[in-house]
Amino acid sequence: MRSKKAYILIAAFLGAYILHLFFAFAEDVRGYGPSVATADAIVVLTGGLNRADEGLRLLREGRAEVLILSGVHADAGADSIFLNRINDSERARIVLDKVSSSTYENAVEVKRLVAERGYRSIILLTSAYHMKRAEFVFSRMMAPGLRMVTHSVSTPNYDQERWWAGGSLFVLVPEFLKYYWYAASLALTG
Prior knowledge:
Blueprint: H1 2-30, E1 41-45, H2 51-60, E2 66-70, H3 78-81, H4 88-92, E3 94-97, H5 103-117, E4 121-127, H6 128-141, E5 147-153, H7 168-189
Parallel strand pairs: 1-2, 1-4, 2-3, 4-5
Helix pairs in contact: 1-6, 5-6, 6-7
């Protein structure tokens, strides 16, 4: 009988701890937003609404000389992504990473591009709900000394202020699990 109570107590403690981690994660995600920084390159992690358009807006504002779209479909081109709304000068400043298909692969490919081109700073752009994981992975993968600024965008499928309401919770829970999966994986692999 004692061991059953001990298991229940351990399960309750673990459940409370995981809940605490989740609420802390949600609060951290609420803190992300846009930035006014400039950098050598804007890195957009594709796969979410408003990301590419926000990257193009920042490029047009002169916030960086280059826009890197990381995780682009193999058949996509800059014109198809931006629906032919770019000019020749902008097209020449857009780099399409068609190799990566995960946040980790985004970081690996962007690290290669950054080193190859000698960039010393990037603006990392993704959805607010994805930023904590993206920032975590990129901060561990990028070369020491690279300045990284985060810039998140809002998306219609996630309410940053009311993350517990509507479908936002169904966006945040998988992101929470992926974050800790990456944290464990990167800790084990060094």
